[in-house]
Write the structure tokens for this entry.
Amino acid sequence: MKTAPLIFLAGSLIALPALAQERVWRCGNEYTNNATIAQQKGCKVMEGGNVTVVQGTKASGGGGSSGSGSAAARAPAGSPRVEGVDQRARDGEARSVLESELKKAEARQAELQKEYNNGEPEKQGSEGRNYQKYLDRVAEMKAELARNESDIAGIRREIGRLPASKQTPQ
């Protein structure tokens, strides 16, 4: 019985060299596994664990003024420039659409709450005989109330992100 663990240990030691990684050299902030390049640049051999190198993205050139940088951050490159009056009109239209959606969602919420009746809606049809069916419907109603409340909160967030409407034209 003592030979079985020794055979397993010997088998696992034989497999270890197959998992070894080739030599890696460090040349400043760069790494290579090419020995000739490493010798030409005078790189040092990395000892110890594995090396993982992830290619980064290049930073965009920041040679512009701060005003154009913020405008570029808002609109994709190559998109047409929208005049201030047109943009205010679009914002006003978006606000009116969102406000109408908010009114619909709030009306729906009031309707759902009335039907839900604080967790005790009226039983329908066969629910008097099948209590589980009633419980399932109550759970669905509660979930629908939560979804609708989440929708209302989302619409309010979107309205809050819009610039404040200005009454006086410029």
